Amino acid sequence: MSVNNSNQEAVKTREQLKKENSKEESPRKGRIRIRLIPIWLRIIIVALLIFLSVTAGAAVGYGVIGGGEVKDIFTKSTWMHIVELVEKE
User: Residues 65-87: what's their mean pLDDT?
Assistant: First the structure.
């Protein structure tokens, strides 16, 4: 019984310490977060990565799997042909 009582007292003490520490050190109080990469730069990086992955996917899909030439994915006639194939019923 005495071990159980001392354990409960220790738990109460830990909880009280956590409450006291949280009151003293609030994260919003006088603390400014400086980001290594600004949000606008993150958006540009994500857009660039999406563009690169779409380009790489088209190159692999059309050039390697489809048997065409990889440089043909940059021509308008190739994309018009692909759109015609998709819209064809």
Answer: 90
Q: In this structure, what are the phi and psi dihedrals at residue 10, rounded to the nearest 5 degrees?
A: -65, -40
Closest CA to 79 of 53, 55, 50, 49: 55
Inter-residue contact 63 to 74 (CB < 8 Å): no
- The secondary structure of the chain in percent helix, strand, coil, rounded to multiples of 5, reads 75, 0, 25
Q: Can you tell me the distance from the alpha carbon of 82 to that of 58, in angstroms, rounded to the nearest whole number?
A: 11
The percent of residues in the chain predicted with pLDDT above 90, rounded, is 37
DSSP 29-55: SS-----SS-HHHHHHHHHHHHHHHHH
Using alpha carbons only, what angle is made at residue 21 by residues 20 and 23, rounded to the nearest 5 degrees?
65
Give pLDDT tens digits for 34-72.
888 899 999 999 999 999 999 999 999 988 898 888 888
